[in-house]
Specification:
Length: about 575
């Protein structure tokens, strides 16, 4: 591979001097090279080769037991000024942080090989593609990046002699949880990650680049980088309408993006197409609409709960060329298993830690945040527009979280500014996708709390400003699939049946269905949610659509407390929207 990019060569050289690897290996993207790396990893145990007849091209990886999720408390935005990181990010002075990190990286690759991965977020050569180089000492990272992004020689060619790229340095180092850091220097286009080997901490193209660094770039360049799925709903007339949806981690993006329509919708000719399941880059198109591309090339999806019934498409996407992380190994036939994949757990198995396990002690076999890394093209419903460099035009933006009470099944904002408010007040129960307590309601504005690379107040203002310059704005909605009854059971069937809600949402975007105005926004008439073929009565739909004033009054208090963190960076419009809500609630 011929590299004529002097700055790139100099930087790799500098990082090698710092980390002192035995060898420097440039990743060219060829299957031969990837296979030779897999062979090395089988030898060291970093990867385990699964049954190649049942799961061709598939491997298993186990991360360290203390290293199974993103670490938000160890993730930093090191902008030059503290106020540019804002109250929702950890911050340290960049020079201090560089000094600290350089000490940790000093000689950390001794006795190891260094891999240099040229990668592209977006179709290589497309006007919206952005490039990165990730240096790593992990073969798991190399083979994962080769699925999640476009890697290799074509990126080097696209970079030419002086193309811009995001600098990413990763080392597993000692996997020391006390010295684990995931650090972003937005003004230097640099990401540094050390002492982790897990997903979102180390696949630097994903959350670090495509969300944290890209959101900072979008702020400067008038576009948006969002934690959103992108899907197309094809109606019986063959027209495809596109939706973006932002839900917090492990709250249903992959499942919605690949949903299988209920029978009655299938019969009528409805289809759902997946463009992306985690990240959307949104820009204003020449026609004045908002257009979305998925900068990724694969899915890093939550494994537990994925089965032929809940998400056949995701399961099918993992049938070949997939990396499974922290799932159960069935020793009888070298296949994988996770909770709810099938009714019965394998009897002769190893759990995610690699211990003998048969499920009889009640412990979980797969880690709750165990994941599959699968090529996007494996997905049976991947959109024909997946590789379209212009992306797809968005009709609706949907926010949503995991709320046992309070948030109704669906409501629509009155206008763009109200929609930005609705996104900003999102609350959701925490999940296993990040370390820390699970099931605690926290504010997660636009599902970007862990991913916004700058001050959240400036981010909301940027959203408001985008509203002023998008001539044909998408309509903004909020959904909640997770309302529970008094027994704690989900009331709404969810999964494929979520199409029934999408149908109402898209109907609203094209003036095809009515709504009633409530305290919080527009809501469906209960009879306008199609329940054909569903064992659910209108009373239950009414309950799902109810707005409990007392709960919403308590919600307002939570919002006020949250907003107080932002001081004078809170856009005045957000306070204005809050005052309208209070007035509507009679507060
Ligand atoms: P990240 O990859 O972490 O960003 O998550 P994600 O938003 O893609 O989450 P995913 O679709 O993988 O969903 C995670 C969990 O939510 C799984 O346990 C699913 O079973 C569950 N889930 C998804 N959709 C629904 C739904 O409509 N109803 C219910 N009750 N659960 C759902
Ligand atoms: C998330 O946590 O939102 C994920 C998984 O999509 S990770 O890539 O680990 O961040
Ligand atoms: Mn995510």
């Amino acid at each position: 591979m011929k590299i004529n990019h002097k700055e790139l060569l100099a930087w790799v050289d500098e990082m090698a001097k710092l980390t002192q690897p035995d060898n420097i290996i440039w990743i060219d993207g060829s299957e031969e090279q990837l296979e030779s790396l897999r062979q090395i990893a089988y030898g060291t145990g970093e990867l385990y080769k699964l049954n190649q007849e049942k799961l061709p091209g598939c491997v298993l990886h186990r991360s360290a037991v203390n290293d199974v999720a993103r670490v938000e408390d160890r993730t930093f935005i090191c902008s030059r000024k503290e106020e540019d990181a804002g109250p929702t990010n950890n911050w340290m002075d960049p020079q201090e942080m560089y000094a600290k990190l350089y000490k940790l990286y000093d000689g950390c690759m001794k006795g190891r090989d260094m891999y240099v991965i040229p990668y592209s977020m977006g179709v290589v050569g497309s006007p919206f593609a952005k490039y990165g180089i990730e240096i790593t000492d992990s073969i798991y990272v190399v083979v994962s990046m080769a699925i999640m992004t476009r890697v290799g020689e074509k990126v080097i060619e696209a970079l030419g002699e002086n193309g811009e790229f995001i600098h990413g340095l990763h080392s597993k180092a000692q996997l020391d949880a006390e010295e684990r850091y995931i650090v972003h220097f937005p003004e230097d286009n640099t990401i540094m990650s050390i002492n982790s080997g897990y997903g979102g901490n180390v696949l630097l193209g994903k959350k670090c680049f495509a969300l944290r660094i890209a959101s900072h770039l979008g702020h400067k360049e008038n576009w948006l980088a969002e934690h959103m799925l992108i899907l197309g709903v094809e109606n019986p007339q063959g027209e495809v309408r596109y939706v973006c949806a932002a839900f917090p981690s492990a709250c249903g993006k992959t499942n919605l993006a690949m949903l299988i329509p209920p029978e009655i919708y299938k019969e009528k000719g409805y289809k759902v197409w997946c463009v992306g399941d985690d990240i959307a880059w949104l820009r204003i198109g020449p026609d004045g609409r908002l257009w979305a591309v998925n900068p990724e090339n694969g899915f890093f999806g939550v494994a537990p709960g994925t089965n032929a019934k809940s998400n056949y498409n995701a399961l099918a996407a993992t049938s070949k060329n997939t990396i499974f992380t922290n799932v159960v190994l069935n020793k009888d036939d070298d296949t994988v298993w996770w909770e709810k994949m099938t009714d019965d757990a394998p009897k002769n198995a190893l759990n995610w830690k690699g211990e003998e396990w048969d499920g009889s002690d009640g412990s979980k076999g797969a880690h709750p945040n165990s994941r599959f890394t699968a090529p996007a093209t494996n997905c049976p419903c991947i959109s024909p527009e997946f590789e379209n460099p212009q992306g797809v035009p968005i009709s609706a933006i949907v926010f949503g979280g995991r709320r046992a009470k309070t948030a109704p099944l669906v409501y629509q904002s009155r206008d763009w500014a109200h929609g930005v408010f609705v996104g900003s007040i999102m609350g959701s129960e925490t999940t296993a996708a990040a370390t820390g307590a699970v099931g605690v309601v926290r504010r997660d504005p636009m599902a970007m709390l862990p991913f916004c690379g700058y001050h959240m107040g400036d981010y909301w203002q940027h959203w408001l400003n985008m509203g002023d310059i998008i001539p044909n704005k998408p309509k903004i909605f909020n959904v909640n699939w997770f309302r529970t009854d008094d027994n704690g059971d989900f009331i709404w069937p969810g999964f494929g049946d979520n199409l029934r809600v999408l149908e109402w949402i898209l109907g609203r975007c094209f003036d095809e269905v009515d709504a009633v105005e409530t305290e919080i926004g527009f809501m469906p008439k209960p009879e306008d949610i199609n329940t054909e073929g569903l064992d659910i009565d209108v009373e239950t739909i009414k309950e799902l659509l109810s707005v409990d004033r007392d709960l919403w009054k308590a919600e307002v208090e939570g919002i006020e407390e949250f907003y107080a963190k932002f001081g004078d960076k809170l856009p005045a419009e957000m306070n204005h929207q809050l005052s309208i809500l209070k007035e509507n609630l009679g507060m």
